[in-house]
Fold:
Amino acid sequence: MNNYELTEDEVILYENSDLQEYSKIILTSKKLIFEKTETIKAGLFKTRTETKIADIIMLDNIKTYNNKPQIHQKNCDVFMQTIDKNFSLRFSGIIEAKKFVTKIVDAITGTSMFKRGAEKIKDTFNTVDDVLGFNTRDTVKGVIENGFVGTLLKGTKKNKK
Structure:
């Protein structure tokens, strides 16, 4: 991280130096930084390596559709769509690619994978409630408290009144 300085409100979320295209990738809370290491001849028989910033992508420039960042993983490959260009990264393994995708989506959306999953479940229950016309949460609560038959009998007693 010698070539890039963090701002006051920026933190490092992820680092990986095991990519094919770049020597290092750094994900901060605001940017995605790509570094490349170049070998430079320093004399007749001497060489030295120098690390330079190859590209910086602001997280705000990553496209979203239906509040979902356009970042897709397929095995070890991660595909991203930005305002300027589309590109792909190849990670050393599927797990490392998944870690990166999870971290960058968390950074862009400002929520964790757990919260996004909970929101999907809530939305599903709300859709079912709208379609069926009754409160599924109360029904499930009644089945847990009173059993299936008790819930049906209480439901029919309420309907008779």
The longest strand covers residues 47-58.
